[in-house]
Every structure is written in structure tokens, then in C-alpha cells.
């Protein structure tokens, strides 16, 4: 399985966020595409084309790891974001909340 650290991802990169709606709403990467893990098989066609691997993120890396395994099985080029959004935020990467306001990783 391909992995990537948040520090290796451009601040304005497109990432796939597989967390639940409330987690995403509280704080996500600026250009994140939100598809909860449970909805991924039905919505895989919504994934964007990117150069290289599409980073996949969740809170700490567990759900995104499962998503990456499944997506690789579908022939897609993806990479699990090590440490998830918790590490993304700890590394000082930008996050934003839906509707503005203070962003958090929950």
C-alpha cells in the first residue's frame, strides 16, 4: 500500500476525505473531496483525476487504509495519508470548517 505523510502533500492538493459528515464539517483540507467510507463503492466514479497518487485521509489513518486497499483493488492510484487529519493539523497544514469559523479535527 502506498503511503504519504501530510508534509509531503501540497497545501492546495486535492485529497479524498473518507470521514463522517460531522468530522468533515468540523475541519478538512481546503480542497478535500468528501466521500464517507461507507459510500465509497457507490460514489467511486466521483473521484477526480490527479497527477500521481490521490491522497486518502481520515482522522488517524485506519479508515483511509481500508479505503486505499479497496481503491487499489479497483485499479486506482491512491496513497494513505499517515496519521490522518490529526497529523495534518499537528503539522500545521491548513484546515477549514464548513460554513467558516474555527476549524477542528474531531
Automatic annotation (TrEMBL):
Pfam families: Rhodanese. SMART domains: RHOD. It comes from the Bacteria. This is Rhodanese. It comes from Dermacoccus nishinomiyaensis.
Amino acid at each position: 500500500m502506498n503511503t504519504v505523510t501530510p508534509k509531503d502533500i501540497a497545501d492546495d492538493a486535492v485529497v479524498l476525505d473518507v470521514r463522517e459528515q460531522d468530522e468533515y464539517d468540523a475541519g478538512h483540507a481546503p480542497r478535500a473531496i468528501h466521500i464517507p467510507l461507507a459510500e465509497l463503492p457507490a460514489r467511486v466514479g466521483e473521484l477526480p483525476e490527479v497527477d500521481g497518487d490521490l491522497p486518502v485521509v481520515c482522522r488517524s489513518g485506519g479508515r483511509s487504509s481500508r479505503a486505499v486497499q479497496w481503491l487499489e483493488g479497483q485499479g486506482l492510484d491512491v496513497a494513505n495519508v499517515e496519521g490522518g487529519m490529526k497529523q495534518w493539523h499537528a503539522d500545521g497544514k491548513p484546515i477549514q470548517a464548513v460554513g467558516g469559523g474555527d476549524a477542528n479535527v474531531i
